[in-house]
Design goal:
With about 190 residues, this protein is of the alpha+beta class. It folds into two domains: about 150 residues, 2-Layer Sandwich (Alpha-Beta Plaits), CATH 3.30.70; about 45 residues.
Length: about 190
Amino acid sequence: MREGAKKGLGMNRAEKQEAIEELATSIKNAAIVFTTSSDRLTVKQSMDLRKKLRAAGAKAQVVKNKLGALSFKRAHDGTSKDAEIAKFISTLKQPTLVVTATDDPVAPAKVIADFAALKEIQGKLTVKGAFFEGSFMNGPGVEALSKMPSRNEVLASLLRLINAPATQLVRVLNASGEQTVRLLEAQRKKLAGE
């Protein structure tokens, strides 16, 4: 795809169709889709945000609003409530950064919220909304999502809970073994007359 084609500028019909299909596939495979307004970010800030999103397992791209709406409709054709789709599509106004994540929906929400909270970023990045499990989520909803534990944090907590009883059992067994050895040693000394 041509460079101008990525932004929806000067695209012929075939290029637009290809862009719609690519974005629709990305949206369809996503666990969550965010829309943000990031047009006031500097190039360096935008690159930093994209790098952090990639590290969180998300992909960010600026899309032409009409192509984004067509892609979203195609990705969710017959799979969600029309009212929810309409709410999400209504966020596709002005320059829009679309963020898709296929695995953990919380990690990219945390990245976006944390990045927007940075002193030098405040007011330059706003969350317009998100589409998660067939429902529209507004900016405050995304903020609440960002405060939840991420998938990796939940797995780490679960692993700690699973390992705790096993660790305690090993301590009890070791303690019992040590006590048994001391008791046998004391009995041996007693019998030996020591």
